[in-house]
Amino acid sequence: MINAVARCVMIAVALLPVATLAEPIQLKMAYFASDREPPYVSVLRPFADAVNKQAKGIIEVVPFAGGVLGRNFPQQAQLVLDGVADMAWVNPNLTPDRFPDDDVLEFPGLFRDLKEASLVTTRVVAAGALRGYEDFFVISAVANFPHLIHTRPPIASLLDLRGKILRVNNLIEGDALRALGITPVILPVNEVALAIGRGTIDGATMSPNSLFAYGVSRITKYHYVAPLGGGPLAFVMNRKKFESLPQAGQDAIRKYSGEWTAARFIEAYDAGNVQAMSDLKSDPNRVIITPPRSELDALQATFETVFDKWRMESPRNLQLLKLVETETARVRAGD
Q1: Could you read off the pLDDT of 21-70 as tens digits, one per residue?
Q2: Please, are residues 189 and 73 in contact by the beta-carbon 8 Å criterion?
Q3: Are the C-beta atoms of residues 155 and 225 closer than 8 Å to each other?
Q4: How far apart are alpha carbons 183 and 202 in whole angstroms?
Q5: Do 211 and 220 form a contact (C-beta atoms < 8 A)?
Q6: CA 106 – CA 117 distance, rounded (Å)
Q7: Dihedral angle computed from the Cα positions of residues 194, 197, 199 and 201, in that order, rounded to the nearest 10 degrees
Q8: CB neighbour burial string for 48-84, b if at least 16 within 10 angstroms, e if fewer
Q9: R_g over Cα of the chain
Q10: In the chain, where does DSSP find H-type helix?
Q11: Residue 290: CB atoms within 10 Å
């Protein structure tokens, strides 16, 4: 009897490593804000569900929304590099020193719509052309578009915006608005409503969809339809962690990255922007300012001046711009 028991114990011990190996590798997916917000609903959650189904028993993407792993939006990329999270949603514009080349995607007038902006961003990042992404496997790289100007104080024209303090999404947008006499302040999107409410800033640039998603619609009433650019966004994973995964796990993540996630972002954000603009226009308590041709011409002339200055700063800028223009032409041609 004793010998039989001993043999059973030895067999059980021998099988322990097999049982351990059978457990899927858990990957922590961080999101800095609510699980009801557009990036989580349209990109992160569908990605996690698809990968978990494809690689069941091999890897498991575990969502941590609500800022559980960190609420500071500018620090999300660092959370991934430090191993606090394995993947996270980031805004590269909040850390321009880390992602210095994203400005090539931010100029007003580059793109016609959100789909074009997002697909070009996806392809340029996938080509490895932009600095700052080397330590990440990029699951998704897209662009929120278009940005409009929303204010709490009354405005009726471009002249009324001069002297205002506005939250901007990125340095390029800031340079363009500064040239118009506006004081730009870069802020994470989840801090905008509070800053306007406190009177620290007068308003913000953001897409119609984000206006409602982050509560800014509750404290702004005036909406200036300026022809601004967009803002790159990314869903990134620690590259070393990615490369350490079994091949089947890597294949599942690759399958649901790139244009797969971009398609879901585009569908959700396009629909959200259309609905948001409809809600704005149908609300009698809101003022929608559509600039006349004279103001549009003035805006375009100012933006071109800023763009020309950026073009001349370095040969690299011209190379990046050529790549963006090439990819834009491909998207427009349906390639």
Answers
A1: 579 999 999 999 999 999 999 999 999 999 999 999 999 999 999 999 99
A2: yes
A3: no
A4: 10
A5: yes
A6: 9
A7: 60
A8: bebbbebbeebbbbebbbebebbeebbbbbbbbbeeb
A9: 23
A10: 2-22, 38-39, 45-54, 76-82, 114-126, 158-161, 171-178, 192-198, 208-213, 239-244, 247-255, 259-282, 293-311, 315-332
A11: 10
Q: Which two tokens stand for residue 189?
A: 């999107």
Mean pLDDT confidence for 78-88: 98
- The CA distance from 34 to 173, in Å, is 26
Residue range 86-123, pLDDT digits in tens: 999 999 999 999 999 999 999 998 999 999 999 999 99
Q: What is the chain's length?
A: 335
Three-state DSSP state, 95: coil
The residues, any chain, with a CB within 8 Å of residue 107's CB and separated by 6 or more, are: 172, 176, 229, 303, 306, 307, 310
Alpha-carbon distance values, 203 to 107, 148, 177, 184, 271 (Å)? 20, 11, 13, 10, 24
Residue 131: which residues within 8 A CB-CB, separation 6 or more? 99, 100, 101
What's the rounded Cα separation, in Å, for the pair 108 and 85?
34
**Residue corresponding to tokens 């100007």:** 149
Rounded Cα distance, 171 and 106, in Å: 9
